[in-house]
């Protein structure tokens, strides 16, 4: 006999929601609960009181479930998200009509006291012995837990997670105030550090256990995530990805975030559904590293759609038979004629897209393949059950198809696939293509369900494509994991391939007796991964060259140095260790940026890069920037180790990325102090551990607070170090106005 049944749920849209933010708007998202257990979550729609989600889920319901609930919440930067309202449907209401429920339903008020509640008391200690480190978690007691049984009590037990390990306490029957006094010890396993998480559950003899609450100890990244949300979190994710890419550490960074996200996910239906730092970072990583790959896959078909402007429509409610004159019919056009013609056009566009994708394994950037390999391994370890066999593939296809390919098809201008936005007819065609690609990315999970049954004529093609995509995903992660994903490497600039060329004005270091303008000579430059060469013309056989491996810095030059704009300098080091500077003038600022990025990218792996440089020139026996009289004087400004990805359009500048992260920490500095370091009511001494508890929903248990305080203190120490470094680097005359170091 079946122990569960399936229910198709589609969260369509909301309207006339109340404003929860001071801006007069809200950032709504919806979660789906079965008997108080979260089983699905939509994306957040930012700054909208009439959000459109349009998301579908297949929910597995135990036969003894009581109700299905939909909560609409407003996502907030700090603190708990605001509950806007909820809808609760009983089992009887759901099963009353076999056709299901398809209508607008008013939200009802939510009483916070009726939701998850309670406190848990823990004592956590890290021990070391000859076998390594061991986390000792003493689960003492809990109180005021939510009643989950019809008797008005619960049968609570605690589950402790650390990395890939988990242990459980015994179950205390019929109480909301359990006393365990049990010690659980978990050994440290290889891999990136993981936070401690404690979950409370109500044990049920029949059906699924009921969730009572969760406690998650925070890492510095978790604290940083707590300080941001919405567009700010997306910007933070972009900067962090760029920062770690530039340092060759994108792999460990993404692996840590995804493992943390997977570890705290109890239901695979909600995996990576939220706009968490992990989801946003992986999404931005794809855009940064994979844009040329995306263009190669999609641009030919996108250009065809824009140029051919064919009318396509499968939805009979949206068909306009008056616009079908562009399609040749015998006799008057009918819905069936339009549907058949549209189906042919859609498959004609989709076939080359799918063919290109499944045949692109070798062209997908190795950094992306390695990141997906790590992601798949992590998800497979977390959900090894047979019923979750598709989760490991869905995690990858969710990012690649739903967050990368489908959005690019829907809005090609935002992904640099087109210069202009589409007209209404082309936009509709792109929407149909994006829906099809999204269905392929969902691996057919919601195929044939929901309201869009008019997509049924396309299902045979989609099912065939899904089978091919599964094989593609298996091949995609079949890659050597020894490489470090995301680090700058010479492979990005092939040694023998010319990556940039054109005329520039060249000048060597100060030639005596020549006026500034006459010192620059026009030369034709070529840049490859091995050499920066130049000659009088492209055809000239006599060429001079600078080995790329000798480059130690590539920087701009102040306009006042030569009274000329758009000048850069290439600093090289010869075999004897002497430094030489070549000055190059470009035609405009765009060309300057392109050459700067190309040269920095080509020289990114070089050792012994200069830490400082002179933005001026050594003329008339002194540097024009700092007026030092020695040519060999140390540079007065920091160098930039910025490199670029793809088509040189998106530089990775560690200085700029770090500055943004630093700014976010500054904005949240006071909140960190108030929440974790300066609250006199909080105590993390061992004695206090046995006297005070913490909310299972508010993250306030003494052990977790100790971890959060430690993380916050580390972040504040970083701020202090950065402030100190900033002060020390200022010129002497500016130090008196530099801010002093911050101390927690």
TrEMBL record:
Superkingdom as given in the UniProt entry: Eukaryota
GO biological process: intracellular signal transduction
Limits of the Ras-GAP domain: 232-442
Gene3D superfamilies, sorted: C2 domain, GTPase Activation - p120gap, domain 1, Pleckstrin-homology domain (PH domain)/Phosphotyrosine-binding domain (PTB)
UniProt KW keywords: GTPase activation, Metal-binding, Repeat, Zinc, Zinc-finger
Stretches for region Disordered: 678-704
Alphabetical list of PROSITE patterns matching this protein: C2 (PS50004), PH_DOMAIN (PS50003), RAS_GTPASE_ACTIV_1 (PS00509), RAS_GTPASE_ACTIV_2 (PS50018), ZF_BTK (PS51113)
Pfam families given in the database record: BTK, C2, PH, RasGAP
Domain C2: 1-105, 116-236
Keyword field contains Zinc: yes
PH domain: residues covered: 497-604
GO terms of molecular function: GTPase activator activity; zinc ion binding
Designated name of the protein: RasGAP-activating-like protein 1 isoform X2
UniProt organism field: Tursiops truncatus (Atlantic bottle-nosed dolphin)
Taxonomic path: Eukaryota, Metazoa, Chordata, Craniata, Vertebrata
Gene: RASAL1
